[in-house]
Design brief:
19% helix; alpha+beta; globular; six-stranded mixed sheet; single chain
């Protein structure tokens, strides 16, 4: 069963994905979901556009994780950006299509890949990826 199919079976909140552990295709456990990238599905419900997950930022959850510094290269002083880049150097990205199954009860996302991708440039700002 695909992750998309499982996700559609019941409504879930974004907070249900945040903190879920990653299990790679080779059986290794990864870090956890620290952010979710959303995009419009092109569908409206009333006055609101529906959003769907397109990707996941995966890393170690720390207080104030990234503070949005992964999104905008102009965000804050350069020294803070540099420190956060160093602290989060192992943070990576998964496309939603990389997700094979979502075990909502266990809090585990099983993925089809064996390693994280670099954070796409359109999301990375000047974070430099992983």
């Amino acid at each position: 069963m695909s992750a998309q199919h499982e996700a559609r079976q019941g409504d879930r909140r974004l907070s249900h994905l945040l903190g879920m552990r990653i299990r790679f295709a080779d059986g290794r456990d990864g870090d956890e979901v620290i952010d979710v990238r959303l995009s419009s599905t092109g569908t409206r419900v009333g006055h609101l556009e529906q959003l769907g997950a397109v990707g996941l930022l995966v890393g170690k959850s720390r207080p104030g994780t990234l503070f949005g510094y992964d999104r905008d290269p102009r965000m804050g002083p350069w020294l803070i950006r540099a420190i956060l880049r160093r602290v989060h150097r192992h943070t990576g990205y998964l496309e939603w299509s990389d997700v094979e199954t979502v075990d909502w009860d266990a809090g585990v996302l099983r993925v089809r890949v064996t390693e994280l991708r670099d954070i796409p440039e359109e999301y990375a700002g000047d974070s430099g990826g992983r």
